[in-house]
Amino acid sequence: xxxxxxxxxxxxxxxxxxxGREAVRRTLGVPDLSLVVLIGATGSGKSxxxxxxxxxxxxxxxxxxxxxxxDDENDQSASADAFDVLHFVAGKRLAAGRLTVVDATNVQSExxxxxxxxxxxxxxxxxxxxxxxxxQVCAERNAARADRAGLPRRVIQRHQRELRRSLRHLxxxxxxxxxxxxxxxxVAAAEVVLERRFNDLRHLTGPFDIIGDIHGCxxxxxxxxxxxxxxxxxxxxxRAVDAAHPQGRTAVFVGDLVDRGPDSPGVLRLxxxxxxxxxxxxxxxxxxxxxxxxxxxRKVQHTHGLAETVAQLDGEDDAFRAEAxxxxxxxxxxxxxxxxxxxxxxxGLPEKYHGRxxxxxxxxxxxxxxxxxxxxxxxxxxYPWAEDYRGRAAVVYGHTPTPRATWLNNTICxxxxxxxxxxxxxxxxxxxxxxxxxxxxxxxxxxxxxxTEAPGGADGRxxxxxxxxxxxxxxxxxxxxxxVREENAAAALEVMSRFAIDPRLLPYLPPTMAPCxxxxxxxxxxxxxxxxxxxxxxxxxxxxADGVREVVCEEKHMGSRAVVLVCRDESVAGERxxxxxxxxxxxxxRTGRPFFDDPETTERILRRIGACVEEAGLWAELETDWLLxxxxxxxWSLKATGLLRKQYAAVGAASxxxxxxxxxxxxxxxxxxxxxxxxxxxxxxxxxxxAAFTEAxxxxxxxxxATEGAAEETAQEPAAGTDSAVAEPSGGLGDxxxxxxAPFQILAVQGHSLAGLPHTEQLALIDRIVAAEGAVLSxxxxxxxxGAAPRDGAQDRPGLLATTRRILVDTEDEAxxxxxxxxxxxxxxxxxxxxxxxxxQALVRTAAGRLVQPGVKCRGREYLRIIYGPEYTRPxxxxxxxxxxxxxxxxxxxxxxxxxLEALDRLAEGEPLWRVHEAVFAVLALESEPVDPRL
Length: 935
Hints:
Blueprint lengths: L2 H12 L11 E6 L2 E6 L6 H8 L5 E3 H9 L8 H17 L4 E4 L5 H13 L3 E8 L2 H9 L9 H14 L3 H4 L3 E6 H7 E6 L4 E2 L6 E4 L6 H10 L3 E4 L5 E5 L5 E4 L10 H13 L3 E3 L3 H10 L10 H8 L4 H12 L4 E4 L4 E4 L13 H9 L2 E5 L5 E3 L11 E4 L9 E2 L2 E3 L9 E7 L3 E6 L33 E5 L3 E5 L1 H14 L14 E2 L20 H10 L4 E7 L3 E8 L2 H8 L7 E5 L9 H18 L1 H4 L4 E9 L6 H31 L5 H22 L11 H6 L24 E10 L2 E2 L5 H22 L3 H4 L18 E5 L3 H16 L4 E6 L16 E4 L3 H6 L6 H7 L5 H22 L4 H14 L9
């Protein structure tokens, strides 16, 4: 051995790994959500160990915090403030569900006690990793550091003494795991392995069948499993010992398998078999917890059905009782499943406890919480935690019997009191379908009648201001996290609270729509350069650039955007949407306001649509009792009377009064030989533009319906300064004469969002509804008042419903593009507003994954005169108007589209009102963002 080798060997012995043996690699298990406390004297290598085994962001060092508050990591006078910072940051990380490592000496019990307390406050496990390194090693390491070269040896010795006193008591202090590494070799050979928490099964995505409280009702459980599609397996005695689903579904039991019912051992045998075979999962209920303590020999009261279970277990052998005891002891408090979107527990669980591990979490998951009061039956009053729940994950639980299982704030209680003569209920996930079987008899008399007091068994609660106030972040499936600014939320709250319909009937608001790219004024293949501001060529080119080949061009009806929620009858509206009797749906504007002040007018329209849906056979075909339609309600004057009179008719009236006299004077001057030719020509052009402006808006206005006194009103001359074309009755409509509704999309039905259905299929369904109206009118004998054709520019088909004309265009085929342009020219020449160009397939993305505009509007030349003013087609004005900034409008359209889709998905999935309303409200909030209103 050389001198160098001998010196190294002596150093190894001094450092604790010189016995000639290599240290055995040690695996240190650390829960993936925990507070890891490193313990060791100064110089023991804690920072080096932390850097080697944990992410830099996971480690909080006392030295670093000391430097933050004093600019000197060794300033011991700043330690108190430094540890305040350390505890604050650690608390924030734990609250966010992040693994956190504390790098400090932590050799004093008082310092560790604060950290254990911090872990308990956030319901995570505290883990201790001790680096027990010889004093000499610590001294040499400190001496090698310039900032610690003068550290007194007594400091290291004090740390070592305190460490020695602590080693035997760490578990008693509250550390759930303690890893002690003795000597440098063990420290170097250690490997930290993150362990998944027992309750973390996010990697299991189902599908699941979640089964409510069983309480010994084995026969009903077998029947329910059969109805869910499971095949039972029996032993030689005919007892059910397993059940498997042919499609690989997994049963999840919410606990309370035992007590009160006729066969608790039979239920245990079946559930244990399913869990053991991987066909089921089970969480602990309070009754299992009590039975487990009994089986371990603890003294418990034989109440609340335990006496019956004990008597039934007496008929089983010791092996079965031991197996049952082991099974119960291994049950966890709750499971987090399906990527974090589903939580199953026994008595419910607030979001802050999801995935956490502590006695407090286990207690809440098994017993729930109470208000501290007792009811008239002497039972504790349950705290209604579900009323305040706002979590993303659906929480499915049992524990508190309720007559029926209903959703409340993304939570549902499945205990429907089977043992008390009610039913046994299961929830299919992710379908959110309920399946139940009735109890065969009353097996146990309840202490009090079943009532809807369980959180989740109630019908809900009013929306909370906190749901929408302030800056909001809404998670969407199509565009991720979308922000709503505080000032926009305030504006939306003003509109929603003062003018909107009942939010239970407001499940969707349509997004704004961006126009096509601005025409560059070039000569187009069809029609030549005629001063267009918008032209279909730009729409087709835009979609072609996005990789969209097939588009559908839909006629743009000149009316007001309308959303129609129509239910099959009043009972459906009451049961599904919780509205009072006499209401069968809703008809509202794109800002959520009712279209008609008169409820009977709304109901008359809804009844007509519902009858047409029935006649078309769509209730049965779509397997729904309600549907949501996107539509256009005409005429424009039906809802925009104030705008027409004040903004458009006033311009028309002023020009009609001014130009005749101006032209008369100029013509007289010209007749006298005055040189006014250029001025006269210019004024004639202006008069023609004004006349074209008046004609443009008059095309979309006509009288509708009849009310009491309507005969006198319509016979009177309009007041000065108004336009007779925009007059309308002030109250509700006595009939539907002249009213037209053009639906163009079925947005959602019971259990399904149809927003992803191709537009060709959508329009085919709509055509069937429209076509069915003729049979409905014939059958019901509608007279000329309620079914007559509208006047003054409306389509000539009788009835309420109007067809949306369309044409398909291949954006890569020049002939097809030319045909689409020609169709648009003919449509607008005949007085049409224009068209909307949409990808045939919905939810289209570019090759880069960006969401494509769901539709762009291409408005006609004369219609844009209403928007941009009578003289907008003059070359100098067109040149100025072509500088249009569309980026913000397009961004707004996509964000509102994603929010609308999210609302539809949440509605179809049966999520609670606040979740649906969150996305709907965000659409309205974005509407207050500043953007050019002419776009």
